[in-house]
Amino acid sequence: MGDITIIGTGNMARTIGTLAVAGGNTVEVLGRDQSKADDLAKALGSGTTAGEWGAVPSGDIVITALLYDGVVPVVVEYGDALSGKVIVDISNPFNATFDGLTHSEETSIAQEVAKVAPAGASVVKAFNTIFRDVLEKGRPHVFIAGDSAEAKASVKAFVESLGLRALDVGGLQMAPWLEGMGLVTVGLAGNGVGHGDFALGVNEFNG
Amino acid sequence: MGDITIIGTGNMARTIGTLAVAGGNTVEVLGRDQSKADDLAKALGSGTTAGEWGAVPSGDIVITALLYDGVVPVVVEYGDALSGKVIVDISNPFNATFDGLTHSEETSIAQEVAKVAPAGASVVKAFNTIFRDVLEKGRPHVFIAGDSAEAKASVKAFVESLGLRALDVGGLQMAPWLEGMGLVTVGLAGNGVGHGDFALGVNEFNG
């Protein structure tokens, strides 16, 4: 159990917040619209607070629960307030037809975030391969990628506090492939897999 | 059960050939080194034949069980002999350090094969996310991508003849992401997941 800040007040912020509270974490919610942040904090309960937009987040882990095109601007806006934090990017930069990514496949939102993050901050890609409703009702595997072993250990502990398994795929240079796996998940759902109630994960076969 | 041709005489050719024979398929093996093809055909048994290098393959499905950099050249060499065939590319274009792909992420070996394949041939990406030893002893999910629904149905039937589940992720433009998932599989293994005895797949959560 740790201190988590969620930047964002939308559906994914609510879902992750709900799981985080249930997992015994101390949660802070930040929203540009303070009333929405206040409402979400109240809805999450269990001591969840709504911080002040732009101030230093209280959580050691800061989850940017934003649409993909909002992540880099918000990290830039927060600037040094994120120094020393573990920034968790959960976004999926899907194109308008959900069959490709918006950016060149040579990069990822997570890597772009790392470029603008302040000194001492670490970036971890996580959660993006999971549909929100599956996160609410299932026990999906959570793929994580990042360059800092310490930051990944911190995110892994958080994931496990939610009752979920974290799967470390490697450094942040793997983030493009996790973003591609978000696309693969959409593709599989479009072909009727599990009536949409599924997530990519690992299946083990050892003895 | 169908007619399958495997181009290649290495370990992956042997593994897929073994499963294909067990699944009741009629198998042909093709190798540039005819004696190796003859040996593999004999080892696979059950009527497996070794065809003549360069001649029209007997199988409707032609699996190129080759190293990634051999696939496009062989498809070019075969040329019109592959007309009307379903070409299954199973390759992983890993770089020397196994933490990136050799080609730009804007393409994939499968898409490069499609560019040089003769008229009437269809290309399907499949099997590349599965370690060979897992394919031998487990029941891994087989992700497939391709632009022809008919070709994918044919590959799906073949996969099912092996007792495996085929998961259609969409068109051939998804092949880069399947190649990335090959890389993610290596990354997970490097982090100790399942002692290497695992494969990416889907986990379902519906009621």
Automatic annotation (TrEMBL), chains A, B:
<dbReference type="GO" id="GO:0016491">
    <property type="term" value="F:oxidoreductase activity"/>
</dbReference>
<dbReference type="InterPro" id="IPR036291">
    <property type="entry name" value="NAD(P)-bd_dom_sf"/>
</dbReference>
<dbReference type="InterPro" id="IPR028939">
    <property type="entry name" value="P5C_Rdtase_cat_N"/>
</dbReference>
<dbReference type="InterPro" id="IPR051267">
    <property type="entry name" value="STEAP_metalloreductase"/>
</dbReference>
<keyword id="KW-0560">Oxidoreductase</keyword>
<feature type="domain" description="Pyrroline-5-carboxylate reductase catalytic N-terminal">
    <location>
        <begin position="4"/>
        <end position="93"/>
    </location>
</feature>
<dbReference type="Pfam" id="PF03807">
    <property type="entry name" value="F420_oxidored"/>
</dbReference>
<protein>
    <submittedName>
        <fullName>NADP oxidoreductase</fullName>
    </submittedName>
</protein>
